[in-house]
Amino acid sequence: MFMSPDGPLRHPPQLGRRLRSVFEALLAAHGPQHWWPAETSFEVMLGAILTQNTAWTNVEKALTRVGARVQLTPEALVGLPRLQLAELLRPVGYFNVKAERVQRFCAELLAAGGEAALTREDTPALRRRLLAMHGIGPETCDDMLLYAFERPVFVVDAYTRRLFDRLGVLDGGAGYEAIRALFEQVLGPDTTLFNEYHALIVRHAKEICRSRRPNCAACVLSADCPASHR
User: Following DSSP, what letter does each residue of the chain receive, concatenated?
Assistant: First the structure.
């Protein structure tokens, strides 16, 4: 695999078959994941902000606490005193910072016309708009695009990098946008596939392809994984 931190990645023609075979193996091993685990698209967006540097179980606790106090709508969250919101978000850690991010995001969302207005934008324009919002980086933005707005955007996170570094598809030198573009180009625009693929990567990386002590003996990908042979 040849790559640069900023430019497009060149890939061998068989990479598409490799990526699809990885997906099929993960799906057979773990089954459908039914992501994102939220009730509404706005809750997906909130979760994408709150899950930064914390586990999803903590996000669920925080959303339950907030939902018991006010409706989970941008209008209600903007109107909540910042200190009260921060206290409700305590389970997610960095709760003061995240309270500010949530309220600023809600304010910018409302200023843009709300979800309905954003839904009418094409994917490149919507991605630019979300990335321009306070506290929204590429991974958080793409979580929102894929799971809240159902756009064919491939989410690249630490789990994606770890798994495909070990499989020899990546070598750690590429930037976020180059990796995202590679997967989207090779797999083609498929929202359903991207949704399930990302969820399966997260599941597999958490349970099997762990950062420390990976369980290669239980990995369905080990036969074609250079890292497991080492």
Answer: -B--SSSPPB--TTHHHHHHHHHHHHHHHH--------SSHHHHHHHHHHTTTS-HHHHHHHHHHHHHHS-SSHHHHHHS-HHHHHHHTGGGSSHHHHHHHHHHHHHHHHHTTHHHHHHTS-HHHHHHHHHTSTT--HHHHHHIIIIIS--------HHHHHHHHHTTS--S---HHHHHHHHHHHH-S-HHHHHHHHHHHHHHHHHTS-SSS--GGG-TTGGG-HHHH-
In a domain, 178, yes or no: yes
148, 170, 185 — which closes off a domain?
Answer: 148
Asked if pLDDT for residue 80 goes beyond 80, the answer is yes
Q: Are residue 103 and residue 187 in the same domain, yes or no?
A: no
Domain identity same for 158 and 211: yes
State what percent of residues in the chain have pLDDT above 70: 95
Supply the range of the domain harboring residue 106.
41-148
144 and 51 in a common domain: yes
